[in-house]
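Structure ticket #2291
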Amino acid sequence: MAARIIFIFAILYTLLILILSLAQLGKISVGDFHPTDKIMHVSAYFGLAFIWFFYIFMKKPEEYHLKGAFIKVSLVVVAFGILIEVLQGALTSYRQPDWADILANTIGVLIALGVFLFFRKFLTRVKHQFNSFL
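Resolution: structure written out below.
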C-alpha cells in the first residue's frame, strides 16, 4: 500500500517536471530570493530521483540489492532530463536545449543518490514505521 502511494506521487511529480519544463514560464522568485535556473534544475532532479529511489526502496524486500536498482533509476532519470532538453529544442520556440541544464540535472540525481545511500539505515526505520502505520 505504501509503495503504491509513493508510486502515484512519483508519477505526478514526473509529470509536473515534464509540464513545467515545456511550459513558457516567466522569472521565478520566492520572496526576495531569485534562484538561478541551475539551482532549480538541481533541486527538481534531486526531488525526482529521490522520490523514485524511495519508491524502489519501499517496494523491494529488505534483502534486495538496492544499489543496482538505484543506479538504473539514476540512469533513467538522467535520460529523462536529456529527453526534456531535446523536446525543448524540438517542440518550443521559447526554450533552448542546454548542456548545462543536463549537467545540473545529473548533479541533482547524484546528490539524491548520495543522500539516500547515506541515510539508508534511517530510511529503513521509516519504512518499517510507515508499513506498520498502513
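Closing remark: Residues 2-22+37-133 form one domain.
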